[in-house]
């Protein structure tokens, strides 16, 4: 048997494909809105990516024409701000440096001769009560976070120091409660 001509075979294949697609059309129509929406989103994302790539290339070219700022205008630090109170009134001027007593000058002269002695003195001065570095600058939450690490003796030392120096009621209350908890039998320091 001789095969049918190619145009006739193509036409028959086209007719069968059309009938198959027509049968699938109701099922495809339900998913059509989702398909269209996803294609629109994909297209918009591609456009955004291309615009971003063009902006990056433009930045590269323009950066060669414009010198780099040493200190950008948007970068400010607390030291750069004026000593005026802020709107909420919390900014205070930095403390004035105190006049050095003669003993401190003698210690500096000694430190110039013995650098190891100066380092040991700085370490001792840096550590506050119970070995807490910068205790006087700690906030209540910062101290609370460290309390579990201290023994009863260290908490007592902190409480004594607090009462003798700044005597902040919130600090002394928290330290006294912690000390009471540590001294109760069966607590085991927790």
Automatic annotation (TrEMBL):
InterPro entries the record matches: DUF8129, LipDrop-assoc
Region span, Disordered: 69-117
A Pfam short name: DUF8129
Superkingdom of the organism of origin: Bacteria
All residue ranges annotated as the DUF8129 domain in the record: 143-182
Protein name (record): DUF8129 domain-containing protein
Species of provenance: Amycolatopsis magusensis
């Amino acid at each position: 048997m001789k095969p049918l001509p190619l145009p006739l075979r193509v036409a028959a294949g086209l007719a069968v494909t059309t009938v198959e697609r027509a049968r699938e059309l109701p099922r495809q129509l339900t998913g059509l809105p989702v398909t269209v929406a996803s294609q629109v989103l994909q297209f918009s994302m591609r456009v955004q990516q291309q615009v971003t790539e063009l902006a990056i290339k433009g930045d590269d070219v323009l950066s060669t024409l414009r010198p780099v700022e040493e200190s950008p205008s948007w970068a400010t630090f607390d030291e750069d701000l004026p000593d005026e109170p802020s709107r909420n009134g919390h900014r205070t001027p930095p403390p004035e440096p105190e006049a050095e007593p003669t003993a401190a000058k003698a210690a500096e002269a000694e430190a110039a001769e013995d650098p190891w002695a100066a380092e040991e003195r700085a370490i001792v001065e840096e550590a506050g009560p119970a070995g807490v570095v910068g205790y006087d600058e700690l906030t209540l939450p910062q101290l609370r976070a460290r309390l579990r690490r201290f023994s009863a003796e260290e908490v007592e030392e902190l409480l004594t120091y607090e009462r003798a120096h700044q005597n902040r009621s919130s600090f002394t209350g928290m330290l006294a409660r912690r000390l009471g908890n540590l001294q109760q039998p069966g607590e085991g320091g927790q």
